[in-house]
Amino acid sequence: MENEDKVQIKFKVERELAEKFVLAAKLNKDYSVHVLNQLMIQYISDSFSNASKDVSRTSIKGFNSNQSNNYGNKEVQSSSSGNVHRNSNTKITSEMVKIAYEYAKKVYSGNLTRQEGKLAISKETGMNPGSAQDYITGFIAMIEGREYRRTMSNLGTEYFLENIKKDFGERAFQLAIEATEKHIKYYNSLGYGQLKAKEDIVRKLKEALGNFEF
Question: Region (Disordered): which ranges (predicted)?
């Protein structure tokens, strides 16, 4: 029996683009269908969010937005084009951050796939699966000193940096700081504003190490 909640969508794309997409999904240990679902959700969220802003400006009477079902109210940390932003209506708590960190470590050590890690975080904390994946991606980038583009909360950034130092040592902490600085530089270049709070976090943690060379 067919699932009435699902529909089949058919469309054509360039072969090279399709092949690169499938390869990227495999490298990220993710399912192509899930990635497409996430991109669609993010696109819908962007569209609903922009539409709701237009509606609020024109004050159309009779418009009633259901908070629980409106995609524009869900937390989104990047658009399908890679631009970074956050819908502040979803609160990331310290407990969510702690649990996300522990699962991110398991993914990094190879005990879980990214897919398993993000679903576990989401199930245990109620965090949006897309956000959960962003925390995992951010953690791995920090450990490796690479720029990451999907943002995390200031609380998450500080907790991850402090605990990477505690769990992996000063060299890993140095790489995590460098990765965060690259992220800040990237975000600041987009024109959405400056990540002053994250800059302060990085500055504070670096100063706390005293004469440690960066």
Answer: 60-88
Helices (H), 10-113: 15-27, 32-58, 94-108
Please name the helix (run of DSSP H) or strand (run of DSSP E) that holds residue 196, with its range, or none.
Answer: helix 196-208
Measure the CA–CA gap between 45 and 77, rounded to whole angstroms: 11
Report the amino acid identity of residue 96.
Answer: M
pLDDT, one tens digit per residue, over 130-141 is: 999 999 999 999
Length of the chain: 214
User: Which residues, in sequence order, are CB contacts of 52 under 8 Å at separation 6+?
Assistant: 65, 70, 72
Backbone angles phi, psi at 85, to 5 degrees: -160, 170
Give me the long-range contacts of 15-21 (CB less than 8 A, separation at least 24): none
113: tokens are: 């796939």
180 neighbors 157 (Cβ within 8 angstroms):
yes
Q: What is the C-alpha R_g of the chain?
A: 19
Domain ranges across the chain: 7-74, 90-214
The structure's pTM equals 0.59
For residue 73, the model assigns a pLDDT of 35
**Secondary structure class of 84 (helix, strand, coil):** strand
**Rounded distance between C-alpha atoms, residue 79 and residue 151, angstroms:** 11
Query: What distance in Å separates the CA atoms of residue 190 and residue 172, rounded to the nearest whole number?
Result: 28
